[in-house]
């Protein structure tokens, strides 16, 4: 999934970004509301982890902008206050969830995943195509009952393809959904990842190339 972290404390922002990337998410990190609005205008994010007390453009205004746009982006608002009044006010702005600082990393990850599920049509907990099964929550993959060890990016590509349910996914869509903004769109990163993924999944091949469009799970 693609996540935007908006937090004006750089150490906390980078720590949250690192944790979410370890969970296989594509994460962009910005430090103020103006940057957040620019990123939201340019990229489709499934979830925004949004600090409420931002300098310049306030987090409340960023949240209002997301809601006004009518997008499917979900907002997890972070705040230094856990008072009920602040929670009610934050949710009243249109935030989908609210988390007070300090928070437990496991809870943050669980809430981000829950919001991501709400940003798209419901799918079963385990994604399957024939003998291939992928469990997003436990980050496991099996084929014919045998475990398949994948890197984070390989797992992300496979999950993206399985979620497409047989439709073609372009290289650009994979790059946007699995990598972050630091990825170079002119490299052969996606093709190389697909090649490694095919080798690990074994025969018969399960990932089809549909030239010149992209890839799909056959």
Task: Label this structure with key terms.
single chain; alpha/beta; Rossmann fold; five-stranded parallel beta sheet; 8 helices
User: What is the tally of beta strands?
Assistant: 11
- Which structural class do the helices and strands define? alpha/beta
Task: Tell me what the CATH architecture of the largest domain is.
Answer: 3-Layer(aba) Sandwich
User: What is the strand arrangement across the widest sheet?
Assistant: 2-1-3-4-5
Helix and strand succession? Answer: EHEHEHEHEHEEEEHHHEE
Q: What is the share of helical residues?
A: 40-55%
> What is the CA-CA span between the terminal residues?
22 Å
CATH fold-level name of the largest domain = Rossmann fold
Query: What's the rounded overall pLDDT mean?
Result: 86
Oligomer: single chain
**Would you identify the regions where 5 or more consecutive residues have pLDDT less than 50?**
none
Gross geometry: elongated
| Helix segment tally | 8
For the record, the count of structural domains works out to 2
Instruction: Estimate what percentage of residues fall within beta strands.
Output: 15-25%
CATH uppermost class of the largest domain = Alpha Beta
- The Rg value, from CA coordinates, equals 18 Å
User: Can you summarize the main beta sheet?
Assistant: 5 strands, parallel
